[in-house]
Design a protein that fits this description.
The structure holds 2 protein chains of 2 kinds.
Chain A lengths: L9 E2 L1 H7 L4 H8 L3 H8 L7 H10 L4 H4 E2 L9
Antiparallel strand pairs in A: 1-2
Helix pairs in contact in A: 2-3
Chain B lengths: L6 E2 L4 E2 H8 L12 H20 L3 H6 L5 H29 L13 H31 L14 H22 L4
Antiparallel strand pairs in B: 1-2
Classes of the chains: A mainly alpha, B mainly alpha.
């Protein structure tokens, strides 16, 4: 069964990244992607592979489950 | 310390050249990367390809203009050279506008870039299928072509235009579709 491409995946990348004082470019360099890709991820326009999700979580010193969810996260949660 | 510049022969690109396009190392082409400007480039490229393909039907067109043979040849040659040069120039700009993603090897791209490149190739393959179908219909029902003959309709310009279209289609699709590149 394939996932519906329209099904949104919510993420907290931007909130956690800014709380860590990292720019998009800095996070992109840490995880080895183009800075535009970080923008796509933050806007929810691209869902990462498991490897990239794990790399982002490691770079932001958090858990994948804290970063991504299928339901909209509550406001103010970081 | 000088690092060796790897050449990807099958793709016709170098590592340094591709990296320079992928990063914002050269900011003088940044203006090309807005979606509006990329779409203008796509339209210009398509126009160039159509004009090159019309070269195959130029002899028929000039016959109706009543020009002398020398003038016909001169007008035809100069126009063909200018149109082909401008189309190649447009294609070069298009490649820069999409950061050369369409021609870059996997190892220099991230996973999103690989995904959009692969999708653009799949769609380009479909589009080229329709183009070839259109060309076949043109050859069957359009003005008669006499391939590589100086008199009559020389089909070689249709071949050149098709090759241009095949080369540029993935970049054109990327340039048109992507919001940020």
């Amino acid at each position: 069964m394939s996932r519906n491409p329209e099904e949104p995946v919510f993420n907290q990348i931007e909130a956690i990244r800014t709380s860590r004082g990292l720019s998009r470019q800095a996070l992109a360099d840490l995880v080895g992607v183009h800075y535009q890709t970080i923008g796509y991820l933050e806007r929810g326009e691209y869902s990462p592979s498991l490897v990239l999700a794990l790399r982002i979580a490691k770079a932001l010193n958090t858990e994948v489950s804290e970063l991504f969810s299928l339901t909209e996260p509550k406001k103010g949660k970081k | 310390m000088s690092q060796k510049n790897k050449i990807y022969w099958s793709l016709g690109v170098t590592e340094k050249g591709t990296r320079a396009l992928l990063t914002d190392e050269n900011s003088k082409f940044k203006w090309l990367r807005s979606q509006r400007n990329r779409r203008v480039l796509v339209v210009l490229n398509m126009l160039g390809i159509v004009l090159v393909s019309l070269g195959s039907y130029f002899p028929t067109l000039t016959t109706t203009l009543n020009l002398s043979t020398e003038t016909e040849l001169l007008v035809f040659s100069v126009t063909a050279i200018v149109v082909i040069f401008l189309t190649l120039l447009g294609y070069s700009f298009l490649r820069v506008a999409v950061r050369g993603i369409a021609d870059a090897p996997d190892e220099l791209l991230d996973e999103r870039q690989v995904q959009i490149r692969n999708t653009s190739y799949r769609d380009a393959y479909l589009a080229m299928g329709y183009l070839v179908l259109a060309l076949l219909l043109l050859m069957f029902f359009g003005p008669e072509l006499q391939m590589f003959q100086s008199d009559g309709n020389d089909g070689s310009y249709l071949v050149i235009a098709t090759l241009f279209a095949f080369a540029a289609a993935p970049s054109m699709i990327l340039a048109w579709r992507e919001k940020d590149i």
